[in-house]
């Protein structure tokens, strides 16, 4: 078996290969959905992330999810001197309305803790807005062409499942490819999409549920907030609920 990584451009190309795996991440979705046989299932969430890179001192990895009072903020170190920061914002957020001082005001408000901890303020080096969506392409194969990872599906980040799903796709595909080259069997390859999609839709469900439990949205009222708090209360007091969360969070078994 000969493995080769090919860089695909906008033009049509002919790839001389028995099997083609298309795993070029979410930027490749336009390419992957150009096949008329596939159906795209997409849903857009009522929020985006305002992301900013800041030059500041090391501060602890921090994920702040304050369902009670404010919208979310999170940040982590990309290097010892660069922090990547995320602030939950509106889907159509206008970056012109976010001077550096406002970014830091919001970040300090959302991230500072009761014991006096607060992120170290530093210069904002770059900023942008990332929209949130869920997305699945069905089926994930066309003849001998197989889609894997973000090229075939996107989940909102709340469940931290994107990489897990990509690895699961590849595990299923690797087994099928090995069998194809070992014995000529094609049935595992033929079932690749069906096997992966069962897991993908369960992970879409889980990520959606986590998002609706942990994010607050401006358009939602008190009823929704109280439902979220009840959900969190149930989750932290019921062994059955905790077991279900742990089962999904650590990863469903591979078929
Ligand atoms: C800020 C952030 C935090 C995240 N946190 C988590 C987390 O905690 N847990 C989790 O499970 N997931 C997380 N994810 C999601 C996770 O990173 C992705 O779901 C995962 O990397 C998808 O893997 P992939 O191999 O499909 O795509 P990628 O990792 O995007 O890899 C695609 C590769 O294809 C290459 N490529 C692109 N275009 C072409 C082309 N035209 N030709 C050839 N090659 C090309 C790219 O260079 C890249 O190497 C996070 C993502 C982000 C952005």
Short description, anyone?
This protein has 255 residues and is an alpha+beta fold. The protein is built from 7 helices and 9 strands, in the order E-H-E-E-E-E-H-E-E-E-E-H-H-H-H-H. 36% of the residues lie in helices and 24% in strands.
Task: Give me the secondary-structure category.
Answer: alpha+beta
What does the radius of gyration come to? 21 Å
Shape: globular
H/E series? EHEEEEHEEEEHHHHH
Proportion of helical residues: 25-40%
Give me the count of strands: 9
Average pLDDT score: 83
**Beta content:** 15-25%
The major sheet is characterized as:
6 strands, antiparallel
For the termini, the CA-CA separation is: 25 Å
Q: Which stretches of 5+ consecutive residues score pLDDT under 50?
A: 63-68
What is the oligomeric state here? single chain
Count of DSSP-assigned helices? 7
Arrangement of strands in the largest sheet: 3-4-5-2-6-9
Protein described:
The chain is of the alpha+beta class. Helix content is 36%, strand content 24%. A hairpin with a 2-residue loop joins β4 and β5 (82-89). The protein is globular and about 65 Å long. The relative contact order is 0.15. The structure holds flavin-adenine dinucleotide. Flavin-adenine dinucleotide binds next to α3. Residues 7-8, 23-25, 27-28, 149-151, 157, 160-164, 166 line the site of flavin-adenine dinucleotide (FAD).
Features:
six-stranded antiparallel β-sheet; 7 helices; alpha+beta; globular; three-stranded mixed β-sheet
